[in-house]
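I trust your eye. Have a critical look at both lines of this record:
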Amino acid sequence: MKGKKVFWGIILVIAMLVIAGATCFIVLHFFSDNDSKQYIKPTELTSNTPMAENHNIDWHKLQEKNNDVYSWIYVPGTRIDHVVVQPDKGESDLYYIDKNLDKNYEFAGTIFSERHNKKDYSDPVTVLYGHNMINGGMFATLHKFKNHKFFKKHKKMYVYQPHRKLTYKIYSAYTYDDRHIMNSFDFSDPKILKKYQKSTLKPKALDKNVRKKTVLNQNSKILTLSTCTNGASNTRYLVQGVLIKDEQTN
């Protein structure tokens, strides 16, 4: 009898440890999120200051922490206001899918591009990746663009770099398959580029939202934000914008 009590006592302790471990797993894997706000310097704002002008980013502090940092993405109306990194040649393209700026494990990862893309956003198509976090962090709120009214109202997104601000007109948002865009299309071929651009203007998706009268040509620079969907594992949700303004900042 005493032996049975000891046995079940051990089982109870093991069960409690498993539950505790599972709880930690859930917290770390579904509710973690990088906080980029600590790298924006406080600024003197007025009621007339546009939100897109509020980003006084401490690039020195960011790049001192991690020299893979090269830009910042901000999408008004969402929670997307994050630093962007690209792993150096010594690391996998997917290095930051589960690493924070300290290069420590974190399920939320960091918003990143792959080395298929130049860091100056000069490619015909640039892709940034971010997790669809259950707490609404990282790129989860891209899914707000499924709502037609939201899509119609929120027309722009911004990329910041030291002494530079890029403004993109958001023109298309839709569910896509999980193919690797940069590996699947040779954008150096004008015919392939034109065909791909056309597909983004007329995506084959039931949840598509497209801004009418958008014109793309061989000189257009498309920024694609990609995240997972809440449905099939082989689908992605994309929000795409075309560069409309490239300006120098202080």
